[in-house]
Amino acid sequence: MISFEELINDEHVKAEYKKAVLLSLFKKVISKKKNDSLYRIRIDNLFKESFNRVRTIQIILKNDFGCEIDEEDAAIMNDWFLANERKKSTRNSMSLELKKELCKKQNGRCVCCGKKFSDDYSSIHVDHVIPWVLVGDELKNNYQALCEVCNESKSSRTDYMISKLLKII
Ligand SMILES: [Zn+2]
Predict the structure, then answer these.
(1) How far is ligand 1, taken at its centre, from the CA of residue 115, in Å?
(2) Which of 75, 97, 123, 158 has a CA between 20 and 30 Å from the CA of residue 52?
(3) What is the pTM of this model?
């Protein structure tokens, strides 16, 4: 039996938690831009006039959300912002080749619950790690194979993987 303390100090959990916090900050900026036209203009102008987008992201998060993130995390978020700007309104269709590739990478199992996929790949649901609604199909390596149950439970949630790792769902 692993204690909760041991679980939350697990490196996988820590990495997932960090990603979820970054993602929720990113979601905040995106939804604020969507709901507040003055804010959108301000953010768009900051990026337009910026010589260093990573630094601009650090400043936005510090000023607007009181959150200081390091350069490495701001660079990850910059990729998400760029993907969001390029995002198309239609989804890519997921090819059988992609399903095969993901299946191989994940040893034939759902990345969240470990359930084995069927041999014909028909039980594989291709999920966007960073939700499609935020970044579309513009990010590399943003796909993972999930079983039907995990795919439906995860939806656009950003904490699903953490809950799974902490065994609280
Ligand atoms: Zn699953």
Answers:
(1) 6
(2) 158
(3) 0.87
